[in-house]
Amino acid sequence: MSAGLIVAIVVVALIVLAVVLLLGRRGRAGRLDARRDQARRIRTEAEMSRVQAERAGAEAEQRRRQAEVSRVEAERWQAEAEKRTALARREEAQAQEQVAAAEARRREARERHIEAAHMDPDADEDEVTERFARERGSDRAEGDGVRERG
Questions:
Q1: pLDDT at 130
Q2: This model's pTM is above 0.90
């Protein structure tokens, strides 16, 4: 082999080696660019997910606050209803006491009338007793009608 041929083979080998290295670097650069693009897409998706998660969290917090406001309102309404119920029960008890007191006064008045008729020589005790029995009977009929409606 001649020296010129050896030099030509070495030069061609160096050129092939340079081309292989150049192509290898370009391939590596292309792979790195592809990985960078993929990383950018992943970061973008992650940012979108973060924004959506924050939005969902804010909406959930708003719903929680609204639910708490509704619960507090319901508790306030319930407390008001309980107060009204207690007031109605007190008023009912007072009314029943007044009815009982009126009945006692009515009985006392009847007894006093009968006692007066017993003492009065001109009055008929049986007639007074019968009159009060009739009046009391008509009072009961009216009172029963009221109770049925209530």
A1: 81
A2: no
